[in-house]
């Protein structure tokens, strides 16, 4: 869930950034075009429009670089972590435990029926079948206890490792030399991710 929260936040940021880039790029082109078409007038407005359009285009390119970096360094790796081998193994433990719990419910219902039958007709055959069912339940509960401990340990180890790696990746990204715009936006994103990490850790 932690990785999914980070991915959703990053994808939302990329989506907003893409719209911002689209609008900003169009505006920069319009400003640059206006300055170029009216350059002969020598007015301050045309020069300012041309300079602003060029500067804004460079800014939007930095936004594009930021979005690409966010996808390649955060979104894609975290999506890959969500289907990694340790996590799939932990999920397998959880699924097996769920199946065993369902089997235990079936066994419990069977024992209840056999007990009723023994009360109605306490013959040796009914008593033997009841004892056999109760023996199966004892073995089944023992197996469930072992599997349950393995499932909890596997899930806990994967969750702890993935939180640690995710946080390290987020913090490490800020240390990469880059433009002031990239740092500003990514610092915001890391603070958001750190808040999510604290929220999940306190659960």
Automatic annotation (TrEMBL):
InterPro entries: AH/BAR_dom_sf (IPR027267). Gene3D superfamilies: Arfaptin homology (AH) domain/BAR domain. It comes from the Eukaryota. This is BAR domain-containing protein. The lineage of its organism: Eukaryota, Viridiplantae, Streptophyta, Embryophyta, Tracheophyta.
